[in-house]
Amino acid sequence: MIVVNYLAAVALLCIGLYAVLTRRNMIKMVMGLSLMEASTYLFMLSLAYRAGSTAPVLLSPPPGKSVSDLVHGNVADPVLQNFCLTAVVIGVAVTAVFLSVVVRIAQHYRTLDTDQVREMRG
Amino acid sequence: MSHADSPGGPAEAAEHEPGHRRWVGAALVAGMAAALAAAMIRIPREHAALPAVARYAMEVSLPRWGLTEPVNEVVYGTRGFDTFGETFLLLAAVISVVMITRSREARRGYFGESLAGEREQAQADPAEQADTSERAAREAERREQGEHDPGDPAAPDTPDAEPLGTPAPETAEAMTVVVRTAIRIALPVLAVAGFYLVAWGYSPGGGFPGGAVLLGVLLLAYAGFGRRRISKVVRPGLLEGIEMAGAAAIILTELLGLLLRGSFSANWLPLATPQTILSGGIAQLFSASELIEVGTGLAIAVFALIGMGHDWSPDERSGADDKADEKGAGQ
Fold first, then answer.
1. CA-CA distance, B41 to B199, in Å (whole number)?
2. How confident is the model over B99-118, as pLDDT tens digits?
3. B276 vs B270: CA distance, rounded Å
4. What does A43-93 look like in DSSP terms, one character per residue?
5. Which of A71, A81, A86 has the CB atom closest to B59's CB atom?
């Protein structure tokens, strides 16, 4: 029932989105964005799962199988695992950008409340 | 002025945190959840066949790249161009952090640059006097950054040098002997593990997890021993140069494929026996460059954030800035 994982990822994304939409504290908004990022990791790794499969490693296959059985056999999707690997690093870097912007805003306006930061308001 | 400036320090965390259009947000999120859930019910599940690109990666991994790790083959081989673009996305993010966190004066280290800023501020506006809260904050920051007399008993190097029963707050820069000993034992193991992930090309990801592990090594040393111990290694001039060298190595690795083999990110190195240190051709070279790029890039971003000092420029919203401009124009 991997669909439960998919729905958990949707739930995580929605919790993060709700935090971004309704919080006024900028640190909490960044936390919401990080939660949305994390939901995509869960989603991609769940999407890579195949029932009864092994890891995509062509090394010491299970007893009674050869490496070529593994190549054509039932394995988890390596491409989606690659997506997740790169997404984690990008997620860290993007969060660092968000946080540095938040620190600068806090230094300039002496507040983390988005309602107090309205110089750009038209 | 915000509530943070109210007398008596920052207010306690409020029971009712101010929200923002909660019902509109809830309605939008509910709509999003319904749309996504409907999509999730229909997408392929655990019994679907592998997509063609995944099947292709499994098939070419051993014969064409000599890698027993298809995930690594996807990262540095089949989807090498994607990884290439992602690397420069990381570089762009790091450059953004460096630009945003840059202080007004040129700096040589991530920490302890407030003195130069003070001098500049004293020149720009000699009439401005520090008030009590600013003096207290500056004093706390000096203590925090370890800029104290070595003989000052109020701020020893480690908490072990503090007499028993000393009241809080703790002012030492390093951690206790238990933590320092544990870090001394764990650091070499962690560093070797990070390099092992890269050197043996059949670990998934190679340089990406390796670089993150190296950042962990730096952060552990910083947390356990204080900033002075790592200030020789962790300084912008050194890290930024190494990062650019890593980026140049990645460009060169990929470009040589175009020049020698006719396609960008093609393998131009001889394949070694699988499961040896050189297996995978350019995948290993790419992975090692990625270790440099990711390790230094994340270190720059994290230490730039940690090193962001207090900026004591006056709050300009009161119009003082405009008056200063007028005065400057009149002179």
1. 42
2. 988 876 656 667 655 555 66
3. 13
4. HHHHHH--TT-B-S--SSPPTT--HHHHHHS-B--HHHHHHHHHHHHHHHH
5. A71
d(CA B304, CA B300): 6
User: Does residue A83 form part of some domain?
Assistant: yes
Given an 8 Å threshold on Cβ–Cβ distance, is A86 in contact with B51? no
> What is the number of structural domains in chain A?
1
Residue type, B267: N
Domain interval for residue B198: 52-104+175-306
The token pair at B185 is 């034992």
Give B171's pLDDT tier (boundaries 50, 70, 90).
low
Residue B242, Cβ density class (10 Å: 0-12 exposed, 13-18 middle, ≥19 buried): middle
> Is B84:A89 a contact under the CB 8 Å cutoff?
no
Among partner residues A23, A24, A77, which is closest to B54 by beta-carbon distance? A77
- pLDDT tens across B128-152, in order? 666 777 777 777 766 655 554 444 5
- Kindly write down the DSSP assignment for every residue of B34-88, as one continuous string: HHHHHHHHHS--TTSPPPHHHHHHHHHHHHHH--S-HHHHIIIIITHHHHHHHHH
Cβ neighbours around B42 below 10 Å, total = 7
Give pLDDT tens digits for B242-271.
999 999 999 999 999 999 998 888 889 888
Hey, is B190 helix, strand or coil?
A: helix
Q: Is residue A112 part of a domain?
A: yes
Residue B216 carries which side chain, given as an amino acid letter?
A: G
Complex ipTM > 0.85: yes
CA distance A91 to A87: 6
Do B74 and A18 count as a contact with CB atoms less than 8 A apart? no
Check B33 against A11: CB less than 8 A apart.
yes
Mind listing the pLDDT tens digit for each residue in B24-36? 999 999 999 999 9
Domain span including residue A33: 3-50+74-116
Indicate which CATH number applies to the domain containing A17: 1.10.287.3510
Interface contact flag, B62 A79, Cβ < 8 Å: no
